[in-house]
Amino acid sequence: xxxxxxxxxxxxxxxxxxxxxxxxxxxxxxxxxxxxxxxxxxxxxxxxxxxxxxxxxxxxxxxxxxxxxxxxxxxxxxxxxxxxxxxxxxxxxxxxxxxxxxxxxxxxxxxxxxxxxxxxxxxxxxxxxxxxxxxxxxxxxxxxxxxxxxxxxxxxxxxxxxxxxxxxxxxxxxxxxxxxxxxxxxxxxxxxxxxxxxxxxxxxxxxxxxxxxxxxxxxxxxxxxxxxxxxxxxxxxxxxxxxxxxxxxxxxxxxxxxxxxxxxxxxxxxxxxxxxxxxxxxxxxxxxxxxxxxxxxxxxxxxxxxxxxxxxxxxxxxxxxxxxxxxxxxxxxxxxxxxxxxxxxxxxxxxxxxxxxxxxxxxxxxxxxxxxxxxxxxxxxxxxxxxxxxxxxxxxxxxxxxxxxxxxxxxxxxxxxxxxxxxxxxxxxxxxxxxxxxxxxxxxxxxxxxxxxxxxxxxxxxxxxxxxxxx
Length: 471
Description:
It is a single chain. It contains 15 helices and 21 strands. The protein is an alpha+beta fold. Strand 1, helix 2 and strand 2 form a beta-alpha-beta unit. The longest helix is centred in the first third of the chain and has 20 residues.
C-alpha cells in the first residue's frame, strides 16, 4: 500500500520545527567573527523537507556570547563532525544545540536523511553509496523507507521500531570521511562524535595542544576485532595530516570499502582500516575518551585522577546535567581540569547507601550462581561450584548472604542480588533503578571501603594523570 501524507503529522512536524528554531534563536546572541576566513553561506530554511545539494554546509560567522560560553576554549582549529540517524535526530540533537555544540566554532552533522532542524542542516551521508551496493541489500531497507518518508513529509521517528538502523549505520563511516574532507579539507583537527556523546571542551583543548596536526594522528579509545580501532561512539580525532594522507589522496576509497563493510559488524573499524593503509596507527586516549556515562563509570584508581574528555550513551537529560555541572564549576572559579573524581563527587557519592531495592548498580566482576543440574562442573570466575567456600556458595540465597561475601573480600566495593544470583564488583558504579525479571533487584555499596579508597587517593593532590592506557 502506498504511503499517504498525514496532514496532522505534517502540522506536528512544522510546529516542532518552529519551536526548535525559536529555542535555538533565543539561546544565541550574535556577534561577528573577526576571522573572515570562516565565511558563512545562506542558512537553510526551517522544516523537515529540504532540497539535496552539493553545496558545502555553511560555516558560522557568529558565536554565542551567553555567559555559558564565557571562558570557552579556542576551537577555531577544530571541526566537530556529529553522526546521527533520522529516527533519533529530533530526540537527541536539540540538547546539543543548547550545550555541547553551542559555543564551538564549526560543526557538520551527518545523518541518513537530508533534512533541516531549525537552522542546522543534516547531510545525507549515504546518498553517494553506489546503486549496486544498495540494490537488494537488506541493510538499506531503513534507508529506502526514510527517503519515502522524506518525500511525503512524514515523521522519521515512526521508523524507530522498523528495520535495524545498526546494519545501515556501518556504511556511514567511510562516506562521512569523504564528505567531511570535501567540505572542510584544511581543518587542523577533525573531532568525530555521535548524538549520544558529550565533550568536555576544556580537556579536549588541553589534549590537542599536546599534538601537532601537521603530523598524522588518529586518537581515541581502543577496541578490538581483528585490528585495533577507535570506538566510534566514544569519539575519535583525526589530524589534518592523517586526513589528507588517507582521504585526500584516495577520493575513491568508497568504491573499495563499501563492499568490504557488508561483511563486518562495525563501521568504526573501517576508519582504522583506511588509516592503516597510510601507516597511521591508533594513539590511545582511554580512559579520558571513554564509552561510559556518570552512572556507569567504574570508579577506581584507573578512573579517578584522569581528565574526562568524552562520554557515551548519554540521554538528553544526562547531556544537560553534565553541561550544567561544567557551568557550575566555571561560575565557582574552578579552572582545574574536570576529572573522574569530580564526576564521582557530584553525580554518584550523594546517592550511595548501604542497600537499595529495585536498583541495579551494574555489578558483574564476580558471579555466584548455582550451576544447572546438567552441568555441575560449569565454571564461574574460573572455578567450579564445588571449589567455592561455604560463604560463597550461600551468597545467591538472599541479599544478606550476598552482602556478607562482599564484606569478606578486601577488593569488593559493591554487590548486587537478583533471582538466586549474587554479583560483586571491584570498582564503584552507581547504576540505576531496575524492576522486573520475576524477582527484586537489590544492590548495596560498602560505604566504609569507598571512603577508605577516597582517602588513599588523596584527592588527586599528586596531579592530573594525562597518560593513556588500554582498557
